[in-house]
Amino acid sequence: MPHNLLSDTLIVLCWLLICWGSSAHALQFFTKVPEMVKLPPPRSEGHLSVESALALRRSVRSYSKQPLSLNELSQLLWAAQGINSQDIRRTAPSAGALYPLELYLVAGLTTDISPGVYRYASEQHSLNLFKESDLRRALSGAALNQECIAAAPACFVITGVYSRTAKKYGKRARRYVHLEAGHAAENILLQAVALKLGAVVVGAFDDQGVQRVLDLPTEHEPLLVIPVGFPPQRAEK
Ligand SMILES: Cc1cc2nc3c(=O)[nH]c(=O)nc-3n(C[C@H](O)[C@H](O)[C@H](O)COP(=O)(O)O)c2cc1C
């Protein structure tokens, strides 16, 4: 190749690289912008009364291979920590409306989102990709190898940020944050019943192990893990 042609080709290539490098696509390629998943709006009416959901609720620890849809995840996330009023208050009560809970979804078998860890953004009703990998088995490892965590299509992880509540309530904050995790958890359990899903609250885990597996910020302390899925068909049991 003649010298001039070679240098011209190199200049054009550099120019193309610079143009591509400044485009949004290239930025995503290099910096891996976190994926945001807008959730479908939650329903505020269903087929089952609160009384029936209470009457039917039972801990379910094994699940069929049926994946969870984005509609089901949306409904469960909203039940736990969704916004239900103009003044951005939530489905679960919170001491002083300080909202110390952060909710994570560990997705494995879901129809509309890739396996990974997502953080729920209540005000946007969206999921933000936090870690891109199926971590159910590792999470189970941090919870005495409880099989329900590895087998569930998805697990919710309720974490608490004590300082948000402590700035107003001081020492009493720990109690309030734990109670709030219970409120959010029960909302998930009852919503699961209404969607014909099965779920269980898991409290037996190594706190630091869960933080390590999910790469949680240190102040997001794990309080409960809730595996959710469709109960097994009769033949599968
Ligand atoms: C704070 C708390 C922690 C729990 N931890 C676990 C757990 O680690 N693993 C598990 O399989 N079940 C766990 N459970 C579920 C209980 O075992 C279950 O609620 C109890 O056996 C009563 O059964 P039921 O939920 O079907 O009514 C926990 C429940 C609560 C309230």
What does this structure look like?
Residues 21-31 have low confidence and may be disordered. With 237 residues, the protein is α+β, with helices and mostly antiparallel strands. A seven-stranded antiparallel sheet has the order 1-4-3-2-5-7-6, with helices on both faces. The chain is globular, with a radius of gyration of 22 Å. The protein has helices at 3-21, 24-31, 50-56, 70-81, 136-141, 147-151, 162-169, 173-194, 207-214, and strands spanning 36-38, 101-107, 116-121, 126-131, 154-160, 198-199, 221-229. It folds into two domains: 1-33; 36-236, NADH Oxidase (3-Layer(aba) Sandwich). Flavin mononucleotide is lined by residues 58-59, 61, 146, 200-204.
Strand and helix layout:
Blueprint: H1 3-21, H2 24-31, E1 36-38, H3 50-56, H4 70-81, E2 101-107, E3 116-121, E4 126-131, H5 136-141, H6 147-151, E5 154-160, H7 162-169, H8 173-194, E6 198-199, H9 207-214, E7 221-229
Antiparallel strand pairs: 1-4, 2-3, 2-5, 3-4, 5-7, 6-7
This protein binds flavin mononucleotide.
Which key phrases capture this entry?
237 residues; 2 domains; binds flavin mononucleotide; globular; single chain; 17% strand; 9 helices; 7-stranded antiparallel beta sheet; NADH Oxidase; alpha+beta
